[in-house]
What does this fold into?
Amino acid sequence: MSDNTLKIWAGNAANGVPCSAYLTGLTSKSGNAKTGPLIMQISMMADRVPTVRYDDVKVSPDGEPVLDDAGRPIWFNLDCHEAVCKGCRFRPDLAHYCPYCGKKNEPGPATCDFCGKTLGVCYVNRAKGQGAAYLYNICKPVTPWPEVEAAMKRAVDRMGMKLFRFGAFGNCTMLGEEFIERCGGTALSLGMKVVGYVADWMFYPKDHIASKYCLASCGLDPEDKKRELAHSLGWRTFRAKLENEKKRKGESICTHEQKGIQCADCAKCGGRSGDIVVTLHR
It folds into this structure.
């Protein structure tokens, strides 16, 4: 097992699907120019290598999509899909706004009905041997929590690690409040700052524990309805905007976009730091 990555949790997600959680970045600094070095929490289904797509459509023997009573494609293993990616705007089984033209598409199309650009592309690297797939293959047993704490402390002492990120892949909320508080509380006790993004925030009661550490991911949110709802539930928000769009009242532009400051030196994407907006990456 790699000392840089530990499997820290195994159990059933909120919807009953077996999942695992990992920490990575414990002995090797990330080369990501935007984030800088940080410890990242990742979750995935326990019984499916994440190189397998979670968004496959059911097909008939002749290769045509199987449709429901409303004429929409039926998505394969949706319960498993939601164990990791519930609420994410990159899920093609949900109605979503095109990141290129900003217009709303109904569930299902691989391309925007208005501008023809490709939709539903997850930004996490799930290629074989990379990212989440790599973690799945190298980390089998769960590491006892005292050893996890010790590994996090070594990262702080030896590498000057300053930042802990929830949800580099998957929603931490699906793993339960105890898991979130254990990870976030430990990071804070070691002098680290905590950030994260949650896509399924709208499914939880007001002032969920994750809102202490994470921002509510609101996508493009052209009518500002998601952001308004998130505020009513006790969340600060993270939103993408189009290139010609201005920031909204109460938002701050990502400091990396504005000044080139890395996430490790900023940490404003924590749950109590205010609303953040970033120009959409295409």
Q: What stands out?
A: The first strand starts at residue 5 and ends at 12. The mean pLDDT is 82. The two ends are 35 Å apart (CA to CA).
